Amino acid sequence: MYNKESFYDCTIVDLFAGPTFFTPIIIYYIIFKALIQINNKFFPIQTGSCHCPYNSTLLSRNLFMIIGTMPKFRSFFLSKSQFTRGLQCHKSLWLLKNRPELRAEPDASLQARFDAGTDVGILAQQLFPDGMTLEYNSGISHNINTTQELIASGIGTIYEATFRHDSVLAMVDILHKGPGGWRLYEVKSSTETKDIFINDTAIQYYVVAGSGIKVSRVFLVHLNNQYTRVGELDLQELFTIDDVTDSTLSRQRDIPQLLAAMRQSLEGDEPDIDIGPYCTEPYDCDFIPYCWQHIPKCSIFDIANLRKNRKFALYYRNILHMKEIPPDFSLSDNMQIQVEAEVTGKEFINISNIKEFLSNIKEPLGFLDFETFMEPVPSFDYQKPYQQIPFQYSLHILASDKLSQHEFLGQPDEDPRRAFITKLLIDTRPCRTIIVYNQAFEIVRLQEIARDFPEFATDIDLLIARITDLMVPFRNRDYYVRAMCGSHSIKSVLPALVPDLSYNNLAIADGETAMLSYARLAKISSQEEIDKVRQDLLEYCRLDTLAMVKIWEKLVSLIKPREQLLLF
Ligand code: SF4
What is the CATH number of domain 348-568? Predict the structure, then answer.
């Protein structure tokens, strides 16, 4: 299961929320039951294709299949998340209802964000203590009835209060009785109120008010990224509550029309909607693998820094490949380099700029890379929401033709920063130049440690003064080859320049996975498994700095005869 919104996405839940339709559905069910059983015998159903708590039961599977044959019913019921999906793209909503198997599974990092959002929602409930929680897997009908009973009983706060109106279902994170009526609180794990969140509160208000509940105010609860934890969590400081009543009300008038348009679209065949900027705005659509199948690898959509509207301007002229870009289509110098490299295969190497870049690098050299984690709710003192906390580094040192490696990996149940910086300052002492890839990241992390642990500030300043960014020649297109496909990230530059060094065989092959693996360490008890994950993390970070060594070596090889290189 993804999260509670995915629970809503399961059509079977909608069915039980509509008692008006209950009787014909049962009749329909009886008629088709025999056919379904025959179908099940010959085509066993795969569990897990529908991310709903009921998806493993024969009843729900059968009903789900029935609904698949009942477009009217299927299209009629909507959840809050389906409504917001439909606002982004009718085709996305149609596919969700009709071809859910085409939906991309969330990757581990997206699932982790869903889980973090759930945790934030539960924590925010403590802002309004002593409420009653409705478990969403108790069943929608049950929760709708219980919500009404709790309201009638005079309760002051309900978490996950559930309503249905106009065949739209909505669960309110926190429903709290205030002066003049009920107050809706929508909890977000973001650090600001965004306009797109008003679509959530608008449909909630529409459903709750339409259910006959007097709603006096609507609020968005989000995290306060200025909050720094010291001691126990201060929930009043951790959360910010914004009154969004006016903006929520201003969208009410449009909702019936929007719903009608979505339902009309759902009643037809798959909408003939081409890809567009809305595929990633406001959210990345999970049907991109299906809709974008016709886009080739390294297409006009990969031109770095070309604005999205200009990419689609090309696309709408049936231009997919860079070689098809008309000469009158203006591109910056760096874009021209990328396009020309793509079309001709030519390598772009600006020797004088590379020479100048390398001239500022002095041995002994350090090649340094950090791994960090971040969490919405700070666990440690002097930590803010979503602050990047360094937990690991690898440092390769090249001195007198010899390469050595140093590393640090924290313990996930402890604040790693003090031990991290203490060892780093010692390990980097011999280095006259410290090479990183994308220095803004490392420098800001170091500055944050200096801010939070001022006793290290002077030494950190001295370390920062020695940092050089290996990304610069690639970002500036002083060295560009087709295989980089517009990207100057180390994950693109390394295979393009050093194809024999690869992340492919590593258990952890990217920073997101490293972060999640580190978080997982705190939850596993098997020492063998802990040792394995720690080893995987060390190998990954080690490869990052070895990759920098190899890339630097490649740059040096451009300006020096091979035999003069002082390499290991
Ligand atoms: S990928 Fe784009 S076109 Fe396809 S369903 Fe999603 S938003 Fe719509």
Answer: 3.30.420
